[in-house]
Write a structure and sequence with these properties.
- It is a single chain.
- The chain is mostly helical.
- The chain folds into two domains: 66 residues, no CATH class; 61 residues.
- Helices cover 67% and strands 0% of the residues.
- The chain is elongated.
Length: 138
């Protein structure tokens, strides 16, 4: 333990920045573990069986209500699709994809940081440095 402290002190002020990044990373890892393991947990078989029972009986409103009771990602995504049920298949799929993007497992950090956004722009080089609508090529 003494050698670790000695190396830390000899590393200078940059070691404090590294320690800060380490602690932030550990906080994110712990937060994601808690959300994925405990808060986002749902019995998918029971959920699907109950949902199918509502839909077989034609009770779409009860299915939407059933999905609204849970804060987990799966019921939120299914609820978005059920709300668009009277529209085309493509509209239902778009609603569900949008709900999945709005409720990522990244949680609060992912909604604000968007770590993969810069990597996705390589397929459109003209949009790499300008994301506003007025800058985009048509």
């Amino acid at each position: 333990m003494q050698s670790i402290i000695r190396f830390f002190v000899q590393g200078g002020p940059l070691m404090y920045a590294i320690l800060f990044v380490l602690l932030c990373g550990l906080a994110v890892i712990i937060d994601r573990f808690v959300v994925i393991r405990f808060k986002n947990r749902i019995d998918t078989e029971a959920f699907a069986a109950t949902l199918m029972q509502f839909l077989k009986n034609g009770a779409v409103d009860q299915a939407v209500e059933y999905c609204s009771r849970s804060k987990a990602a799966l019921p939120r995504i299914v609820r978005a699709g059920l709300l668009e049920l009277n529209r085309s298949e493509r509209d239902v799929q778009n609603a569900m994809e949008l709900a999945a993007k709005e409720n990522p497992l990244f949680g609060h950090v992912g909604q604000r940081v968007h770590p993969f956004r810069p990597l996705g722009n390589h397929s459109r080089p003209h949009q790499r440095f300008c994301s506003r609508r007025s800058c985009r090529r048509r």
